[in-house]
Amino acid sequence: MRKLLLSLAIAAVPSLSSAIEEPSYEVERKIGEIEIRRYAPYVVAEVIINTPAEDAGSEAFPILAGYIFGKNKGSTKFAMTAPVTQAPEPMRLEMTAPVTQAAAPGGYRVQFVLPSEVTLDLAPEPDDARVQLREVPASTVAVIRYSGFWTQANYDEHLAELETVLRTANVGWLGEPVLARYNPPFMPWFLRRNEIWLKLQ
């Protein structure tokens, strides 16, 4: 049975990655395994959650999913995109993206990226007042990618690695780190795509 589930999960990866839209970006260069990406502007639906980091995503998901599945003026439904980002609140807005997450006394700002054809002017107003719409400006970020489930230790290890690579390369950054997650809950830990983003100066 475990082999069957593993086969199904592996088979699902290509279809998931090709079907789910991500924000548009170009890789400007690489420093070892670290990518320096230039993101074009994109629109997000976001909510601020006052919970620990490990709970912020699950608390925010039904609120944001409600918006994209039709709880808005006009009952418009949107396709799912990736990633979901989480970052501490308050945070620099340029650092937010698909679904991001980060910790701070004010809680976590969790975001869903809206499809590329949706502009801030055209996006329908949310029915839930907790959901806010925002255009994220173009930005350049350094990105480290890793697999596994969310744990503070896993996050801390890879954030430290990202910061070390940037310091060694004399590349400065600013703002809070952003956690970006790309996979549905049923994805096995070893197939998951997680990223940490740092905005470059």
Automatic annotation (TrEMBL):
It holds the Pfam family SOUL. Coiled coil: none annotated. This is Heme-binding protein. InterPro entries: Reg_factor_effector_dom_sf, SOUL_heme-bd. PANTHER family: HEME-BINDING PROTEIN-RELATED (PTHR11220), SOUL HEME-BINDING FAMILY PROTEIN (PTHR11220:SF58). The keyword Nucleus does not apply. Keywords: Signal. It comes from Candidatus Accumulibacter phosphatis. Residues 1-19 form the signal peptide. SUPFAM superfamilies: Probable bacterial effector-binding domain (SSF55136).
